[in-house]
Amino acid sequence: MSVVDTPSSPIITLSDLDYRWGADLPSTLTFDQLTVAAQERLFIKGPSGCGKSTLLGLLTGIISPQRGKVEILGHDLAAMKQSERDRFRADHIGYIFQQFNLLPYLSVIDNVLLPCHFSATRKQKVAGDLQQQAKHLLERLHLPSSLLHSPVTDLSIGQQQRVAAARALIGHPELLIADEPTSALDHDNRAAFIELLMEEAQQANTTLVFVSHDPTLEPFFDRSIDLTCLNKALETNQ
Predict the structure, then answer these.
(1) How many CA atoms lie within 13 Å of 149's alpha carbon, on the beta-carbon side?
(2) How many CB atoms lie within 10 A of CB 209?
(3) For residue 222, is it within any domain?
(4) Per residue in 17-56, pLDDT tens?
(5) Are the C-beta atoms of 133 and 139 separated by less than 8 Å?
(6) CA angle at residue 50 from 35 to 217, to 5 degrees?
(7) Is the dihedral of CA 130, 114, 14, 195 positive or negative?
(8) I need a surface site. Which of 54, 164, 175, 189 has the fewest CB within 10 A?
(9) End-to-end CA distance of the chain
């Protein structure tokens, strides 16, 4: 699937959006517009219940709004079939989950290579040997080479986090979404990880959308959005 990605066009445009979990339920997320520029580093904050998970579900095409557009790289995900959204996500979006979602029966390097097995588009973007690219990413993210073939269950939380980041970054996805990936780390390790993540995203020309409830992380980013101010559904439901 071809994409539209020019310096003058936003990578994300959400407009006239409304989402609710059921026809008889109140809106969970409602807002007029949100745009994110290509290669921007965006921080989205807000407490539990403000719509962060719903927003990420819309951005990745896991769910679709009842009203409005969700345009990623010039494609309206809301107008796609579920199978088309799944393919688009595999080809163009890297995701770092809060709980990492690494496969315990695979080694470190096999976990990192997973996106390239599911997406020929991301595999084709890797110059040279896939395993060498995975090793390079892990090295850049400061994971010891002695752990490459270890089960991920043998790793510390911080090491698992680096594996999850490398998996999300391999194949140079245009969009990287990070969902509270630093919540299990102390302050110093959070800062170090974000700096590494920023460096790797910049190397890959990847746009970063980082979601967290921790406002102390804001200074690392180009722009910050408080979802409690953007989400009109919160006012309606009060």
Answers:
(1) 1
(2) 23
(3) yes
(4) 999 988 888 899 998 999 999 999 999 998 888 889 899 9
(5) no
(6) 70
(7) negative
(8) 189
(9) 42
Q: Tell me if 6 is assigned to some domain.
A: no
Indicate the number of domains in the chain: 1
- Which tokens hold the place of 11? 């990578």
- 8 Å CB contact between 204 and 172: yes
Cα–Cα distance measured from residue 135 to residue 127, given in angstroms and rounded to the nearest whole number: 13
Tell me the pTM.
0.90
CB 95 within 8 A of CB 38: no
pLDDT-based confidence at 238, cuts 50/70/90?
Answer: low
The pairing of strands 93-96 and 29-37 is unpaired
Distances (CA, A) of 14 to 56, 190, 201: 12, 29, 22
DSSP summary character for residue 147: G
CATH of residue 174: 3.40.50.300
Q: Evaluate whether residue 169 is within a structural domain.
A: yes
Selection from 195, 206, 222, 216 nearest residue 141 by Cα: 195
Q: How many Å apart are CA 137 and CA 147, to the nearest integer?
A: 13
Q: State both tokens at 45.
A: 């904050």
Q: What count of residues does the chain have?
A: 238
| Domain membership flag for residue 207 | yes
| 3-class SS of residue 208 | strand
Give me the domain span that covers residue 226.
40-51+81-230
